[in-house]
Write a structure and sequence with these properties.
By secondary structure, the chain is α/β, with parallel strands linked by helices. Helix 5 packs across helix 7. The chain binds 2-phosphoglycolic acid.
């Protein structure tokens, strides 16, 4: 059984005092989220220490938004996997579309980042997703397949089974235009099927698949209800404790 994961990607937002306040709000409400769901905060590097301190032993997990592919060295401004582990991170995003678009992260670089995350003992959340142009041109499956092939190739079954994938259609990120549960489920089923072909059914059944792109407390229940949607990667709505917790608790019976 895959444990749902609700992750808040804060992107390049908040100063320390604001981050502490938001974290306290999430921790205070985390008890109302069903116990079978994991919560994760992904603040910018500058806030990891402060947020980690507030999280304490609350059970809410900590992760980063990116990492360097080397563990140390002459890479001015780089932040490595061991540095993230040292700050208490358990997870790290790899390949967010904003990294691909604004920072030029290529498939080859992301492959190295994913490997670096695994060798540092971090749990990568690898993000894939097509642009509007690609969807309209009927290229969605080709794009998703390529993004997976370039970065996940050669991964051992055990590493693959522990991986989290986030399907984030670029046209839905920050646009207020959430994919319908049907559209998201179709893509998730495609991704799980592709993983099954490469790594086998049992690995595919363990991989956690998150949906991301304008998720709100209102849209979350319908998405989380789908068989292949195992959680959400939340951007804008994760900057307020109330809406993040609303998503985390959405559609749960308990
Ligand atoms: P959004 O961002 O929820 O603001 O659309 C999602 C993401 O980019 O992870």
């Amino acid at each position: 059984v895959r444990r749902p994961l609700i992750a808040g990607n804060w992107k390049m937002n908040l100063l320390r005092a604001e981050a502490r306040q938001l974290t306290r709000g999430v921790v205070a409400g985390a008890g109302r989220v069903p116990r079978d769901r994991d919560l994760l905060l992904l603040p910018p590097f500058t806030l990891l220490d402060a947020v980690g301190g507030e999280l304490g032993s609350s059970g809410v997990r900590l992760g980063a938004q990116d990492l360097h592919w080397e563990s140390a060295g002459a890479y001015t401004s780089g932040v490595s996997g061991p540095m993230l582990r040292d700050l208490g991170c358990e997870f790290v995003l790899v390949g967010h579309s904003e990294r691909r678009t604004h920072f030029g992260d290529t498939g080859a670089a992301l492959h190295r980042k994913l490997r670096a995350a695994l060798s540092a003992g971090l749990r990568p959340i690898y993000c894939v997703g097509e642009s509007l142009e690609e969807r309209e041109a009927g290229r969605t499956w080709v794009v998703l397949r390529t993004q997976c092939d370039e970065v996940l190739r050669g991964l051992a079954p055990q590493a693959m089974a522990g991986l989290t994938l986030a399907y984030e259609p670029v046209w839905a990120i920050g646009t207020g235009r959430t994919a319908t549960p049907e559209v998201a489920q179709e893509a998730h089923a495609f991704l799980r099927g592709s993983i099954a072909r490469e790594w086998g059914d049992s690995v595919a059944s363990e991989v956690r698949l998150l949906y991301g792109g304008s998720v709100t407390p209102e849209s979350a229940a319908g998405l989380l209800d789908r068989p292949d949607i195992d959680g959400a990667l939340v951007g804008g709505a994760s900057l307020r404790a109330e809406s993040f917790l609303g998503i985390a608790g959405a559609g749960a019976s308990a």
